[in-house]
Design goal:
CATH class of the largest domain: Alpha Beta
Helix content: 40-55%
CATH superfamily of the largest domain: Histidine kinase-like ATPase, C-terminal domain
Structural class: alpha+beta
Largest sheet: 5 strands, antiparallel
Number of helices: 10
CATH architecture of the largest domain: 2-Layer Sandwich
Order of helices and strands: HHEEHHEEEHHEHEEHEEHEEH
Strand content: 15-25%
Strand order of the largest sheet: 2-1-5-4-3
Shape: elongated
Length: 357
Amino acid sequence: MLRKQFADLQSACAFAEAIVATVREPLVVLDQDLRVIAASRSFYRTFNVDPGETEGRLLYELGNGEWDIPKLRSLLEKILPEHGVTAAGEIEAYEVEHDFPDIGQRTMLLNARKVFYEAGSRTNILLGIEDVTEKRILEREKDELLRQKDVLLDELRHRVANSLQIIASIIMMKARKVESEETRRHLEDAHQRVMSVAVVQEHLHAIAPGVLVQLGPYLSKLCEALAHSMIGDDRSISLKVCGEGGSATCRDAESLGLIVTELVINCLKHAFNDDTKDGQITVAFDVAGTDWKLSIADNGIGKPDGVFAQPKTGLGTGIVKALAKQLGAQVVTSSGPQGTTVTVTHATFAANEIRAA
């Protein structure tokens, strides 16, 4: 279509010059000897060069030689595959940094294409130059802000962990001094919940910000800490972790850790009695794509079906359901003579269970 419309060379040249003049990014047209045939207005404006001192000169001689950039020279003279050039003679987003005397340090993305003509062996090179200096400065500033945020978050986590330990100690001191058995029980319950949050925070604190948490090792360490702090030597109860593992963000891992801690505490308080022998609590986490299922099972005395091992309005129930809702998951409890199992299921697992029912 364009060939028919611009049958004569003069019209085609005028059209090409109009395109070069109007493009927004700096654009230079070079001959096969790398002399400047034409350049866009944005090139002259961005790099503070004069058209009269540009056209007809070698690119490397422009100004006071500031365009004699080794990387640019290698790129244009060789046009080799190692520079990311295709067989058609194209260069995409090749980044170059250079300090220009008049405009200072600049970071540029170079895009070049060879133009071949049917008649003769003459070729031209179109060189597009995207000035990304401000973009790179903003990226570095963003990275620095993120680094500072990570430092502040690290300090905040450290302070939170210390504060939780202090609060737990104060609660336990009060629990030892009160005479009311009911008050002591409530204080001990509060102490356990504060400690559960502290344990979760402690294990997440060792993970670098932004890194996905490997749930297998995380839940294993968490349950080891829970067993050490909450299962005395006088109780014949074991706590183990199994399943396929998987990974999660720190936020989701924290929610899962709190759910596990709350349900393990619940098992220790309600699933077993003084006569229990070989009690066992099993924490399992299984993954299928982006879907997962967390289950906490015990072989204790069991409860009637549908009962969440304590009254439905209990604090433990509310905590687990609220955390599960944040994760977009459902909580289901089954209980019988062999013990109680609480499952927290997300997406496909839950849908499959509903269809099976």
